[in-house]
Amino acid sequence: MKAGAKRNLKILAYGLGAVLLTLYFMFLTFPFEVVQDRLIAPVAGQIRLPIQVKEIRSTPLLWIRLSDVRLLQGPGAEAQTLLKIDEAKIRPSLLALALGRVSFRVKADLCGGRLSAKLGQRKSERTVKLSWKGLRLESLGPMVGLKEAKLAGVISGSLNLAMQGQNWATGRGNLSARLTEGSSRNLSVAGFPTPELKDIRGSFELRVEQKKAFLDSLALESPSLQLFAEGTADLLPRLSSSRLDLKGRLKLGEDLAQTYQPMVSGLLRNRDDQGFYTFSLKGTPANPKFVP
To answer: Cα 145 to the chain's mean position, in Å?
Structure first.
């Protein structure tokens, strides 16, 4: 290599090193209070629920530590904790910042399991990649509309989503999840109480493409019940108002059939040659309507 080329490479290396060291120093001296305004507040606004963080601090290994993170429901002092994370870690990518992009990695111990995420922004496009493993349903706080239900199980899955601005409904991506060791008590669906279920296994595959969601598959299986569904939904910024168009198949096990067969036969009149009742689900997630 010629002497001039070596000199240019050294200048480039020194310059890049100086930029990274400057960014590292800026990270260590950064006023992390702005994380609340720039990162946490927009997320809270998107999900329409307040997020409370007790403490935000940095570490020399480029991690931002958030302690006692709570997702709340309800006004002021009466707010209930839906979700609590003892500690979460966020790490920005210095190289991405040097190139004019925003990129964060997030790790957290959540509901007895592990959550990892990568959040990025380039121009007007935002990307979200999530994966979770071993999350326990019974560790969640009371869910909206399910306050009396007793749910248990282990959930693992992933989410990949790219969107313009903060409107996730206009994005594209996919969501998948798996349930094992599931059980439910005191659960009502569309106003109908469901029996106690045990040993539930489930899977879920969903695609999102420009204001349209495609439920490729939903399966819930237990010794007492089998449920399968697929279909589409017209997405709105407020998920609970999105319009559903789903088709499902339901089959009762022998133990439930003795008690619930007459009621189910009266509600869902169509039955295929495999013994599954078929139905459609219209309306919205907040107000679903069964169509026999």
So the answer is: 18
Of residues 112, 109, 113, the one with CA closest to residue 89: 109
Residue 129 domain flag: yes
Q: Give dist(CA 227, CA 218) in Å, integer.
A: 8
pLDDT tens column, 221-237: 999 889 999 999 887 76
Distances (CA, A) of 4 to 12, 15, 114, 169, 277: 12, 17, 51, 54, 78
Domain that holds residue 215: 124-292
Per the listing, tokens 């088709």 go with: 247
For residues 73 and 95, what is the distance between their CA atoms, to the nearest angstrom? 37
Q: What is the pLDDT of residue 200?
A: 92
Q: How far apart are CA 8 and CA 50, in angstroms?
A: 52
Is residue 214 situated within a structural domain?
A: yes
Task: Answer yes or no: is 268 within a domain.
Answer: yes
Q: Give the rounded distance of the alpha carbon of 112 from its chain centre.
A: 16
How far apart, in Å, are the Cα atoms of 110 and each of 70, 106, 137, 164? 11, 12, 11, 28
Predicted TM-score (pTM) of this structure: 0.71
Tally of structural domains, the chain: 1
Would residue 138 count as lying in a domain? yes
Measured CA to CA, the distance from residue 204 to residue 115 in angstroms comes to 18
Q: Are residues 233 and 247 in contact, defined by beta-carbon separation less than 8 angstroms?
A: no
DSSP code of 271? B
Residue 44, pLDDT > 60, answer yes
Say how far apart CA 143 and CA 49 lie, in whole Å: 12
Question: What is the spatial distance between Cα 55 and Cα 192, in angstroms, rounded to a whole number?
Answer: 43
Task: Count CA atoms closer than 13 A to 173's CA, side-chain side.
Answer: 19
DSSP state letters, 140-153: S-PPTT-TT-EEEE
113-122 and 125-136 strand pairing: antiparallel
Any idea what the Cα angle at residue 248 is, between residues 251 and 149, rounded to 5°? 75
